[in-house]
Design brief:
This protein has 7 helices and 10 strands. The protein has helices at about 5-15, 25-35, 45-50, 125-135, 140, 150-155, 190-200, and strands at about 20-25, 55, 60-65, 80, 85-90, 95-100, 110-115, 120, 160-165, 180-185. Strands 1, 2, 3, 4, 5, 6, 7 and 8 form an 8-stranded antiparallel beta sheet that branches. Helix 1 runs parallel beside helix 4 and helix 2 packs antiparallel against helix 3. The chain is globular and about 45 Å long. The model has no long low-confidence stretch (mean pLDDT about 90).
Length: about 200
């Protein structure tokens, strides 16, 4: 039974409409991560942690966190202290996906913080349903407004610990057209922090 969740995920990876790279797992690191999260590999999140260093989806656009890999943190390392928010993925534009319980007695759902509006949005999907959607082709529609002609080759050349910074930024009126802005790779942690700082300064967080 412990392998059942990963077998389902593996089948989705194999059938995905875009490239998906399964980063190799470090068993010792994965075990420590599972223990810290107090989950087992029977769950979808646990299966990703136990069997991969992370999933790199759609030419590197989405980086789903697993047991950790060079340049990519493990899920336990990304626990947001004090807010009950577990970061489970980053995208190349500095967006974040978090699994959290919005209200007591309500099942946790995945929320998205996007660089185009600097706000957390409840996707109303559990972790398994969200990951299934991401692997099954949902990225194309989800990110329609954040892509530009030729993005595939540009993103594929960005390391997993980097993101693409654009100027003007996507949350400004001038920065909405990503094909007309200045873009460059910078450390992903720096990009995520910049979006968070902008959201706080603008009163969104």
């Amino acid at each position: 039974m412990e392998q059942s969740a990963w077998s389902e995920i593996s089948a989705l990876v194999a059938a995905a409409p875009y490239p998906v790279e399964v980063l190799p797992a470090d068993p010792q690191r994965a075990g420590a991560c599972l223990a810290a999260l107090e989950i087992t590999s029977r769950s979808w999140l646990g299966a990703v942690v136990a069997n991969s260093g992370g999933l790199v989806i759609d030419h590197g656009w989405l980086r789903v966190l697993g047991g950790g890999h060079d340049g990519l943190p493990d899920v336990a390392a990304e626990i947001a202290q004090g807010v009950g928010r577990l970061i489970v993925a980053f995208d190349v534009m500095g967006g974040q996906f978090a699994w959290l319980q919005a209200e007591p007695a309500v099942r946790p759902t995945v929320h998205y913080f996007g660089p185009e509006d600097l706000a957390w949005q409840d996707l109303e999907l559990g972790y398994g349903d969200w990951l299934e959607a991401m692997l099954a082709g949902a990225l194309a529609g989800f990110y329609e407004g954040l892509r530009w002609p030729g993005w595939e080759a540009e993103v594929a050349n960005v390391a997993v610990d980097q993101g693409i910074s654009s100027w003007p930024p996507p949350w400004t009126r001038e920065g909405k057209d990503l094909s007309a802005v200045s873009r460059k790779p910078i450390p992903l942690a720096e990009l995520v922090s910049a979006h968070q700082d902008a959201a706080r300064q603008l009163g969104f967080l």
